């Protein structure tokens, strides 16, 4: 069973705490994505799983077995490195077969002539040779088995690295930003291939990335980290639709969720002077908050509309970005309304409208909101307020 | 005891043994220089210096010509340094940045010059020295020594110039700098640490050089320290502690100088060697 | 006029600029290395005495033939080969071991790296001097140490005076002096070993030796080869250390090509045969270098 359990994992580098009390439960067959900006500790966490980094506190379980004291070679985990880490002087076939060779390696293989005979026997044994051929076939590398890594393209190298991981048939695959060195188009292809691999191999994958698209498309679970702390752990859908705090809300989604400064008091829910009627679910949450709040609305839940419709906000267009299929319109709200994007205060919100927008900067418009999917946060803590 | 700490202990002792081997001969030179004649020839050797013998370091300056030798060596070394750098910087830049016919040949000749033994050139150089009136002068030594250091210095400087971003120079060219101005105003300051390293290497060469100093200089007053020191070999009059004291006085400046500049020397040297 | 031309060229980056840049050094190098080398080359086909260098007689390949016909010269070649090979193998081996040792994490590593390079910084003449004192039969520290360890016979003779031990003694001194150079360069090369590759080997269950063979050696191999070439060439021309230690003696036991060259020229005063010895030495250097690049090229091609 390749379920993974991280219990109270902490990592200190000197006096700096890189990872703070992280708990995660990964079910067998999950594709867990560790997501976060650079320096959030996601790679450190992955390396601790692999055993390349020690843990300062806590425990790691693989199935029922506690593994945090074991050396990397005894954890039955394969690791795909960001730079692929292919052995430069070994051919593609030798690279893929290396983990198997090491599995059958005995100390006396180091004896010069005897050792090379023994090594060759291992390499040609049906188990090893067939695994290598099979792996190469799955990855479309059959034609390249005798080539050296440096003669391959980035995508092919990436596949060799995957092959070296697959050939061991490990219980767990660990991948550290494996697509970050590829160009955009290839990245999309490899994304699909890795997803396919996951479905076919049925192993447990742990995948580190800073790219939310990779996380959303590939992961069955996402753990979003920031400054070594777990912000939210859930399915991609939960993370997108049900963010736990303003950080998660701002990190996931392009353009980011708008956070509009708002307030609940005895005379109802207001954004600036405008009274807004909320769906019952949100109203209950707002009542509970009873004070300053942030209303989280995705850009595609906003409409540019006429001002005579109720629940509208007034603003001025400041920038129109044409993406092609849609347009992102930045609107500066009237001075008394404010939005909070990430940690920076500004009164600009972004609206995504389908098609090519003809709006000119400087135009006065009103904005109507579809609040069915909206969420509410406490302005003070940034935490989600639920009803 | 775990295998981990056992391995660590092995590692530490191996490093210590290595350092002992590396430092011992120099240490032994120091110990011998600070051992009285009586103890030097005792049945059991003295393993630590006798500090009461320290005045010998004062005495050798009057009992031997070491003062004069050191000055001569310093002049030769300094001259070699300045001349080598001055001659090397332009070709280093050309080899790194400019395209021209014969570039490969020039590189090959520089490499080939590493094969020439000094001794072999002594005779023809002697004739040239007679013609140019350089015989028995320190200037002559500076000129021949530089011929052997220039290729090395060119190679080291070329390695450093290679790593200066071309964009910087292009920016300067857009701003109206000539090649010479670029070299002197933009490139030279950026590779200053490497120039320092190359200087140290050239200085050492001049300081250590023996063959030319032996054959081209005959006046007592122009003798360099390497020749002076070698003169003690096989000679039985000068007490061994005096010889070793002179050796230390000649060696320590080199080692000290090297240790101070070590970081740059290593960086300069290896940049050329690793890139090949 | 010339000044103007130079300036215009430098400013416009004309096609003569590179030549202006290299001209001073080229002229200089030709005067002090190229021209003397040509002179030596001509000299090697003549019979010329040091006492009257202007009266030389053309003898064709006479000097070369004479050299190759004498057993002494063949012995010199053997000793040169032995000296060079041993210097290279031991200094590279010790240098590599040192580099690997000092590449590991430990306290005081910076100091250790600096101290280990001391031998390289010491002047060869001073090194020769202290080693010949250490080799002294009666009072040298080697003798004391060997006798203390129970090697009575080995410890009671001056290695430099013994035809069977002198070459070993010279080699010990040489290796001591030159191994820091290779270790310093190898240390720098080791910094180029990718940490990810090292970790990949660990994940793949490679033991230390396998990880070294799969990761470290391929990375530093080109550097090791290059330093081997340099050490070879430098060993073929090393003079001061050997000369001050033994002058090529006793009875020619440490007589390499370069000391033989000096002997021919300044002891026997035969400039012609001295030049021929020198040309043989340079020829060997060229062959070694040529072979080196051929082998490297083939290895390179085999990898494609």
UniProtKB/TrEMBL annotation, chain A:
The record ties this protein, via PROSITE patterns, to: ABC_TRANSPORTER_1 (PS00211), ABC_TRANSPORTER_2 (PS50893)
Give the originating organism. Phyllobacterium trifolii
InterPro entries cross-referenced by the UniProt entry? AAA+_ATPase, ABC_transporter-like_ATP-bd, ABC_transporter-like_CS, ABC_transpr_MalK-like, ABC_transpr_MalK/UgpC-like, Mo/tungstate-bd_C_term_dom, NA-bd_OB-fold, P-loop_NTPase
CDD domains found in the cross-reference section: ABC_MalK_N
**Name the UniProt record assigns to this protein:** Multiple sugar transport system ATP-binding protein
Show the Pfam families listed in the entry.
ABC_tran, TOBE_2
GO MF, one term, reads: ATP hydrolysis activity
Domain ABC transporter per the UniProt entry, residue ranges: 4-252
- Major localization listed first in the record, in broad terms: membrane
Family as reported in the entry's similarity comment? Belongs to the ABC transporter superfamily.
Recorded GO CC terms: ATP-binding cassette (ABC) transporter complex, substrate-binding subunit-containing
One of this protein's GO BP terms? carbohydrate transport
The topology of this chain with respect to the membrane is:
Peripheral membrane protein
TrEMBL record, chain C:
**Top-level lineage group:** Bacteria
According to the entry, every stretch annotated as the ABC transmembrane type-1 domain falls at 77-292
Spans traversing the lipid bilayer = 16-35, 77-102, 114-135, 165-190, 211-236, 271-293
Signal peptide position in this chain?
Answer: none
* Record's keyword terms, sorted: Cell membrane, Membrane, Sugar transport, Transmembrane, Transmembrane helix, Transport
Kindly give the Gene3D superfamilies that the UniProt entry links to this protein.
MetI-like
- Indicate how the chain sits in the lipid bilayer: Multi-pass membrane protein
Where does the UniProt annotation locate this protein?
Cell membrane
The chain's coiled-coil residues are none
Q: Which GO terms describe its cellular component?
A: plasma membrane
- GO BP terms in the entry: transmembrane transport
**Homology family:** Belongs to the binding-protein-dependent transport system permease family.
Name the UniProt record assigns to this protein: Multiple sugar transport system permease protein
The scientific name of the source species is Phyllobacterium trifolii
């Amino acid at each position: 069973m390749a379920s993974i359990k991280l219990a109270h994992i902490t990592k200190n580098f000197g006096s700096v705490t890189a990872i703070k009390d992280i708990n995660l439960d990964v079910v067998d067959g999950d594709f867990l994505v560790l997501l976060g900006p650079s320096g959030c500790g996601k790679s450190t966490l992955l390396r601790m799983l692999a055993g390349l980094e020690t843990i300062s506190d806590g425990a790691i379980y693989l199935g029922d077995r506690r593994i945090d004291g074991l050396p990397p070679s005894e954890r039955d985990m394969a690791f795909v490195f960001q730079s692929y880490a292919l052995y430069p002087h070994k051919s593609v076939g030798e690279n893929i077969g290396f983990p198997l060779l090491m599995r059958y390696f005995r100390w006396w293989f180091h004896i010069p002539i005897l050792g090379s005979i023994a090594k060759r026997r291992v390499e040609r044994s049906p188990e090893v040779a067939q695994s290598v051929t099979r792996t190469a076939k799955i990855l479309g590398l059959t034609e390249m088995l005798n080539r050296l890594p440096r003669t391959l393209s980035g995508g092919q190298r990436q596949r060799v690295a995957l092959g070296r991981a697959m050939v061991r048939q490990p219980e767990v695959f660990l991948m550290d930003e494996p697509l970050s060195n590829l160009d955009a188009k290839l990245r999309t292809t490899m994304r699909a291939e890795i997803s396919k691999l996951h479905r076919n191999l049925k192993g447990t994958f742990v995948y580190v990335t800073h790219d939310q698209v990779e996380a959303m498309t590939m992961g069955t679970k996402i753990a979003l980290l920031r400054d070594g702390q777990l912000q939210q752990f859930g399915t991609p859908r939960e993370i997108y639709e049900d963010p736990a705090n303003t950080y998660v809300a701002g990190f996931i989604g392009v353009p980011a969720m708008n956070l509009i400064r708002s307030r609940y008091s005895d005379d109802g829910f207001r954004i600036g002077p405008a009274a807004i009627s909320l769906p019952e679910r949100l109203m209950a949450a707002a009542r509970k908050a009873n004070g300053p709040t942030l209303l989280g609305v995705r850009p595609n839940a906003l409409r540019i509309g006429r001002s005579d419709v109720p629940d509208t906000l007034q603003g001025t267009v400041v920038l129109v970005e044409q993406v092609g299929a849609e347009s992102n319109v930045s609107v500066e709200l009237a001075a008394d309304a404010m939005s909070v994007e990430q940690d920076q205060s500004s009164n600009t919100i972004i609206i995504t409208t389908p098609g090519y927008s003809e709006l000119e900067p400087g135009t006065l418009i009103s904005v109507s909101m579809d609040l069915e999917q909206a969420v509410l946060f406490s302005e003070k803590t940034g935490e989600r307020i639920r009803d | 005891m775990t295998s981990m700490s056992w391995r660590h202990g092995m590692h530490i002792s191996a490093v210590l043994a290595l350092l002992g081997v590396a430092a011992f001969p120099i240490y032994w030179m120091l110990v011998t220089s600070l051992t009285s004649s009586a103890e030097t020839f005792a049945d059991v050797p003295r393993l630590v210096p006798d500090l009461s013998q320290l005045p010998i370091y004062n005495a050798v300056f009057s009992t031997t010509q070491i003062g004069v030798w050191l000055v001569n060596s310093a002049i030769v070394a300094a001259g070699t340094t300045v001349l080598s750098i001055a001659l090397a910087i332009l070709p280093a830049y050309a080899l790194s940045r400019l395209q021209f016919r014969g570039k490969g040949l020039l590189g090959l000749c520089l490499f080939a010059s590493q094969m020439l033994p000094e001794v072999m050139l002594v005779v023809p150089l002697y004739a040239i020295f007679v013609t140019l009136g350089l015989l028995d002068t320190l200037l002559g030594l500076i000129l021949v020594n530089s011929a052997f250091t220039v290729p090395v210095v060119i190679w080291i400087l070329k390695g450093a110039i290679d790593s200066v971003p071309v964009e910087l120079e292009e920016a300067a060219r857009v701003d109206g700098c000539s090649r010479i101005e670029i070299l002197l105003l933009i490139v030279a300051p950026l590779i200053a640490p490497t120039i320092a390293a190359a200087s140290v290497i050239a200085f050492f060469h001049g300081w250590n050089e023996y063959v030319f100093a032996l054959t081209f200089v005959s006046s007592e007053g122009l003798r360099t320290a390497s020749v002076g020191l070698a003169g003690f070999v096989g000679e039985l009059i000068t007490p061994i502690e005096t010889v070793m004291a002179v050796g230390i006085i000649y060696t320590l400046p080199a080692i000290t100088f090297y240790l101070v500049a070590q970081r740059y020397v290593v960086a300069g040297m290896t940049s050329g060697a690793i890139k090949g | 006029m010339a000044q103007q031309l130079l300036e215009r060229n430098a400013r416009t980056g004309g096609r003569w600029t590179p030549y202006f840049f290299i001209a001073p050094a080229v002229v200089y190098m030709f005067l002090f290395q190229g021209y003397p080398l040509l002179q030596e080359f001509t000299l090697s086909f003549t019979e010329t005495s040091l006492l009257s260098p202007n009266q030389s007689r053309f003898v064709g390949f006479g000097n070369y033939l004479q050299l190759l016909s004498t057993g002494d010269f063949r012995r010199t070649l053997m000793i040169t080969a032995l000296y060079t090979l041993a210097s290279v193998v031991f200094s590279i081996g010790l240098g590599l071991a040192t580099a690997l040792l000092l590449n590991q994490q430990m306290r005081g590593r910076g100091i250790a790296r600096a101290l280990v390079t001391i031998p390289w910084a010491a002047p060869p003449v001073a090194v020769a001097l202290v080693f010949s004192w250490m080799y002294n039969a009666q009072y040298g520290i080697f003798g004391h140490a060997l006798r203390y360890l129970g090697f009575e016979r080995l410890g009671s003779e001056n290695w430099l005076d013994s035809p069977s031990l002198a070459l070993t003694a010279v080699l010990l001194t040489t290796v001591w002096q030159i191994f820091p150079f290779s270790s310093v360069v190898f240390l720098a090369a080791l910094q180029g070993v990718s940490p990810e590759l090292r970790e990949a080997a660990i994940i793949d269950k490679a033991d230390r030796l396998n990880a070294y063979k799969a990761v470290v050696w391929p990375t530093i191999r080109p550097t090791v080869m290059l330093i081997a070439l340099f050490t070879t060439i430098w060993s073929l021309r090393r003079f001061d250390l050997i000369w001050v230690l033994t002058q090529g003696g006793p009875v020619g036991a440490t007589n390499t090509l370069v000391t033989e060259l000096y002997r021919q020229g300044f002891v026997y005063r035969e400039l012609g045969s001295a030049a021929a010895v020198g040309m043989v030495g340079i020829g060997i250097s060229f062959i070694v270098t040529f072979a080196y690049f051929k082998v490297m090229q083939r290895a390179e091609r085999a990898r494609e």
